[in-house]
Design a protein that fits this description.
Rossmann fold; 434 Repressor (Amino-terminal Domain); eight-stranded mixed beta sheet; alpha/beta; disordered C terminus; flat; 3 domains; Four Helix Bundle (Hemerythrin (Met), subunit A); single chain; 20 helices; 441 residues; 57% helix
């Protein structure tokens, strides 16, 4: 997402490259190009115009320091305005209550039911709360079964009533069950339609009045661009929801919905969702998205994702092994598993400043580790612990057993040995620094 917009904005800023100072003329030319970039990203004309007027006013009124080039100043102004435009800061959801009630609304095909499963996992794992999901989509035949499967995958119970067609009754019974059995949060998955219609609006409004949710979220497919914004506006006029969820952010989307919804609807984007994995749900941070749009990466989110998979006890044991030069191929395998849990490899790499642009046209297969994993799993426990014993015949057996080639096995063993040396050197350097620090004291 935002790749094309990032490229266009980079070209826009080049208008100011080499300029000694910001003037009305060069700012006007730059802003005109920025407006075109936003329109190409499917931002509405009015929103793009209003945004560019704000950028222009800030740029012309900016007190440019001698040490700061006009191009750098424009990037800073753009960053601040983009973040402000998308909501300034991350917005939390209200799940306080006995129980807290989250109503999930949206059209069919928007990813509403999948998001419900992801949100259940998010609240359970990040907040440590007991979650119950209520299957209130009695319109789409497969919705309840889909929700049951998702509930099982994240180990969250799904409340259903066989044969019951009244979503209000199901929702109220689920809330009552939650009160009786000590659930902290009830997430209500509601029925959608293929398009906004009066019947859908009446049904969702009636359900909303009946259960009085502490949080109402509207789920919208980011790939629908300006249609997503108009749909969100129609729902908000009837529901007055609390926040928006943008799904399918990994698809071929130009980003217009993310940039426009807050300005048009007046409600914040609270979550962004991508892919089918239940862990693929992120809190929406406007400033971090602005970083990504302007090619600055998103190192904070990358660190947070790493911390989520960080096992403190395992890290301590690994540190001891490194200090004693006991790092094994099985340790190497486990580190790969930790990286894979963090998400899509290309998305993770693009969070590193400067890397996103470099790998834009590079096809990074998310199964890139499969060959390495197969090779390690084809080894005996002794070979994983002591790779030095892997001679020519063993290498041939490992290659045959893993479905790879002898050069691939040789390459992995060489890479592993190099990795072990680097990690040992880093550890030794760290220990030396600590000892020097102790001597100073």
């Amino acid at each position: 997402m935002f790749e094309n917009l990032s490229e266009r904005l980079e070209r826009s800023f080049k208008i100011l490259k080499g300029e000694g100072k910001i003037t009305e003329i060069n700012v006007a030319e730059t802003v005109k190009d920025i407006r075109k970039a936003l329109l190409d990203a499917d931002v509405s004309y009015k929103v793009a115009k209003d945004f560019c007027n704000r950028v222009k006013d800030k740029a012309i009124g900016a007190n440019v320091l001698t040490a700061v080039k006009p191009q750098q100043m424009m990037v800073k102004i753009m960053h601040d305005e983009l973040a402000e435009f998308m909501g300034s800061s991350a917005q939390d959801i209200n799940i306080k209550g006995n129980p807290g009630i989250v109503l999930v609304a949206g059209l069919n095909g928007s990813g509403k039911t999948t998001f419900t499963g992801k949100l259940a996992l998010h609240i359970k794992s990040k907040r440590g709360m007991k979650v119950l999901v209520a299957a209130c989509d009695t319109f789409r035949p497969a919705a309840i079964e889909q929700l049951k499967v998702l509930g099982e995958s994240v180990e969250v119970p799904v409340y259903t009533e066989e044969g019951e067609k009244d979503p209000i009754k199901i929702a109220k019974d689920a809330i009552e069950k939650a009160r009786r059995e000590g659930y902290s949060v009830v997430i209500i998955d509601t029925a959608g339609r293929l398009a906004v219609d009066e019947q859908l609006m009446d049904e969702i409004s009636a359900l909303h009045r009946a259960v009085q949710p502490t949080e109402t979220l509207f789920v919208v497919d980011a790939m629908t661009g300006q249609d997503a914004v108009e749909t969100a506006k129609a729902f908000n006029d009837r529901l007055d929801f609390d926040g928006v969820v943008l799904t399918k952010m990994d698809g071929d989307t130009r980003g217009g919905a993310a940039l426009s919804i807050k300005a048009v609807v007046g409600k914040p984007i609270k979550f962004v969702s991508s892919g089918e994995k239940m862990e693929a749900l992120d809190v929406f941070h406007p400033s971090r998205i602005a970083d990504r749009i302007l090619g600055m990466g998103d190192i904070v989110s990358l660190v947070e994702k790493a911390q989520e998979q960080f096992d403190e006890q395992q890290a301590r044991e690994l540190k001891k092994k490194l200090a004693k030069d006991k790092f094994t191929l099985w340790d190497f395998y486990e580190q790969i598993q930790q990286v894979k849990k963090m998400g899509n490899i290309k998305d993770l790499a693009s969070m590193i400043p400067g890397v996103g642009k470099a790998i834009k046209d590079v096809d990074i297969d998310n199964d890139a580790f499969k060959g390495v994993e197969a090779i390690i799993l084809s080894m005996t426990p002794q070979e994983r612990e002591h790779p030095d014993i892997i001679n020519g015949s063993r290498r041939k057996r490992i290659a045959d057993g893993s479905g790879t080639s002898l050069p691939e096995v040789n390459r992995l063993l060489k890479q592993f040995e190099g990795t072990r040396k680097v990690m040992k050197t880093a550890m030794t350097g760290n220990l030396m620094q600590q000892m020097r620090g102790m001597r100073r004291k």
